[in-house]
Design goal:
Elements (H helix, E strand, L loop, with lengths): L4 H8 L5 E3 L7 E3 L9 H16 L2 H15 L4 H8 L2
Antiparallel strand pairs: 1-2
Helix pairs in contact: 1-2
């Protein structure tokens, strides 16, 4: 699972009120005027932290390992996605 900017912001401030347009951190509209002054850097750091935890989960490590083994056998991304239903 890929950790979104939205998820990251809610982990920083659970009741934040905002809209992100086109998945672009430079296009955030804060409906609550961002009272805690959440910055782009904080969002990116939180996203990296959460993604690292997600990627380290055993089921995700196994999935990545399996995909690499299929690539090593010569399958391309489209073929791998067709096999695993991604």
């Amino acid at each position: 699972m890929t950790i979104s900017y939205t998820h990251s912001i809610f982990k920083i401030k659970a009741n934040a009120d905002f809209t992100i347009y086109e998945d672009d951190l430079d296009n955030i509209v804060w409906h609550d005027d961002n009272p805690t002054n959440i910055t782009k850097t904080q969002i990116l750091l939180k996203q990296t932290e959460l993604q690292t935890v997600e990627d380290a989960k055993p089921e995700n490590v196994k999935k990545a390992s399996g995909k690499q083994k299929l690539k090593d056998l010569g399958l391309d991304d489209a073929e791998i996605n067709a096999l695993i239903g991604a």
